[in-house]
Design brief:
By secondary structure, the chain is an all-alpha fold. Among the domains are: 4-116, Serine Threonine Protein Phosphatase 5, Tetratricopeptide repeat, CATH 1.25.40; 338-409, Serine Threonine Protein Phosphatase 5, Tetratricopeptide repeat (Alpha Horseshoe); 411-518, Alpha Horseshoe (Serine Threonine Protein Phosphatase 5, Tetratricopeptide repeat). 71% of the residues lie in helices and 0% in strands. It is built from 27 helices and no strands. Helix 3 packs antiparallel against helix 4 and helix 4 crosses helix 5. The protein is globular and about 120 Å long.
């Protein structure tokens, strides 16, 4: 019926294969008609498809135009993609200030959501870590393990009760968000005396939800119970009540006292609140140096709003020397908490269910947005050559490109992979020198045992680098020391190296002996051997005479 929102949802379902109905051609038709109507979601999708050449012509210039229109129309994804492109210099001139501008817009949007407690942390499973047994991935709770935890919780294991309550409260490790289950487990643990559980019940009543309707008095009661036991989350909760005047009069001095107590116990949210008080001058004198100190402390535990305010300070040079690069890196971290990160879960489950194309499309979009885990996951799927949406001959070059982007972002495994691609000539021409260069980076910077082993082999055989047996031995030993998994391959490699080396020595010895004989033949004539025998006999007679003399 031409309803734009319905068309957008339909196009997304056809593109990402939601409900098992992937049809990229049909999705593109919908997106093209939507783009003409000015849909920023469609502009972003067409940019993404042009960028990879999926169902459309591979055209980076076109992709850039689509992304520019998308971001102008309000697409946060397009903003993020452009931010990443300008940060890394992908098909545009590297420009930190432009990247900062794009990332800031997205980070402002995310921070607003986080302040309303709407940020959802999402597990990012690395496909490269467990290709054989993905079901045992620690990022996602296996159904059998979940049932076992439930059994333990019912038996009265307080720690498990609190953990299950937390998982259900925010919907972690593949579990659905369920406030009723969260409250059920927290109440069980609180009854048994768990201060953490009391504090979490306080948090639920403070924020309000279906299971625990907003109630400041109940929140105060549970926070106080937890705080009396010296619990950091409870102390922080009381601080919040006094800071915002919820159920009690606003009292910055009390808030500061509780935040300081909780911060001393290492609770990152309290460290952030202290930073915010000094940053905004709420009940205290503005002090950017102190604000920076507390934001930095909280950011070390990954507190997202602390990272956001740190980025703000670096971007404007407030209380710290201005650094565009640092601000962009920090903003990027905040942007990656956006709701689009939920695709990590749907992509992972699609992969597990064998729906490779649906998984690849979702990971590829996240990769385009600058997520390192998605870049290595996309490359991993592409090199397995199981996907049908990209032509076979494009797979290795595209995988190499993605491994490269992941490596630049600090992925050691990806760095080794680039070395492999150049060594074997996958998606590029064989180049031992470049392979050795990448293995060296992985070995020196990330202490990768695999890279050390590969480099040792190259030194042993003089591939792309000058032959050096001693250095090869040293690198083999280092690989074995770095990873226990390398012990057996290293042992075999060293046996082979020493055997070959011994054989070479023996051959060399034989050759030198023959060479010496040839030289004697030239100086003493053809009967030099008779001369030597005569000399030995004379020496023996002389020795025997002396002995019996």
């Amino acid at each position: 019926m031409g309803h734009l929102k319905a068309m957008e949802k339909m196009a997304d379902a056809l593109l990402f294969g939601n409900f098992g109905m992937q049809n990229i051609t049909a999705a593109i038709q919908l997106y093209e008609s939507l783009a003409q109507e000015g849909s920023y979601k469609a502009q972003n999708a067409l940019g993404f498809l042009s960028s990879y050449g999926i169902g459309m012509e591979y055209n980076q210039a076109k992709a850039l135009i689509y992304y520019t229109f998308g971001s102008a129309g309000g697409s946060m994804m397009s903003q993020m993609i452009l931010g990443y492109r300008y940060l890394s210099g992908i098909n545009v001139l590297q420009n930190c200030e432009v990247a900062l501008n794009h990332y800031k817009k997205v980070a402002d949007y995310i921070a607003d959501k986080l302040e309303k407690s709407e940020g959802i942390p999402v597990e990012k499973v690395r496909l490269t870590e467990r290709p054989e047994n993905l079901s045992s991935n620690s990022e996602i709770l296996d159904w059998d393990i979940y049932q076992y935890y439930k059994f333990l919780a019912e038996r009265g294991d307080i720690q498990i009760q609190v953990s299950l309550g937390q998982l259900h409260l925010i919907g972690r490790k593949g579990l659905d968000q369920d406030y009723y289950k969260a409250l059920y487990y927290f109440l069980k643990a609180a009854k048994a005396g768990s201060a953490n559980a009391m504090a979490f019940i306080g948090k639920m009543y403070l924020e309000g939800n279906d299971a625990a309707p907003q109630n400041n008095a109940t929140a105060f009661k549970y926070f106080s119970m937890a705080a009396n036991k010296g619990n950091a989350i409870g102390l922080h909760g009381l601080g919040l009540l006094y800071f915002y005047g919820k159920g009690v009069p606003v009292n910055y001095a009390e808030a500061l006292k509780y935040f300081q107590k909780a911060a001393e116990k290492g609770w990152p949210n309290a460290q952030f609140q202290l930073g915010f008080m000094y940053y905004s001058g709420s009940g205290v004198w503005k002090d950017y140096k102190l604000a920076f100190k507390y934001f930095y402390l909280a950011s070390q535990s990954g507190q997202p709003l602390a990272i956001y305010y740190l980025a703000k300070m670096y971007a404007t040079g407030t209380g710290v020397l201005r650094s565009c690069r640092t601000a962009v890196e920090l903003y990027k971290g905040v942007c990656e908490l956006g709701h689009w990160a939920e695709k990590f879960l749907t992509a992972y489950f699609a992969y597990k269910d064998g729906d490779i194309d649906s998984s690849l499309i979702q990971y590829a979009l996240l990769a385009e947005m600058g997520y390192e885990v998605a870049q290595s996951n996309s490359a991993f799927i592409l090199e397995s050559k199981k996907a049908k949406i990209i032509e076979k001959e494009k797979m290795y070059p595209m995988a190499l490109l993605l491994w490269n982007r992941a490596a630049i972002q600090g992925n050691a495994f990806a760095r080794v992979k680039i070395g492999d691609y150049h060594y074997y000539g996958f998606g590029t021409k064989k180049d031992y020198e470049t392979a050795a260069k990448h293995y060296s980076i992985a070995a020196d910077k990330y202490h990768s045992a695999q890279a050390m082993f590969n480099l040792a082999y190259m030194y042993e055989h003089g591939l792309g680098i000058s032959k050096d047996i001693h250095l090869a031995r040293r690198l083999y030993d280092m690989a074995a020391q770095t990873s226990p998994d390398a012990n057996m391959p290293v042992l075999l490699a060293l046996i082979k190296l020493e055997t070959v080396h011994l054989l070479q020595d023996v051959l060399f010895f034989n050759f030198t002996m023959i060479w010496k004989w040839i030289k004697l033949d030239n100086t003493l004539g053809p009967y030099w051997d008779l001369f030597v025998i005569g000399l030995i006999v004379a020496v023996l007679i002389f020795l025997l005479r002396n002995r019996f003399g």
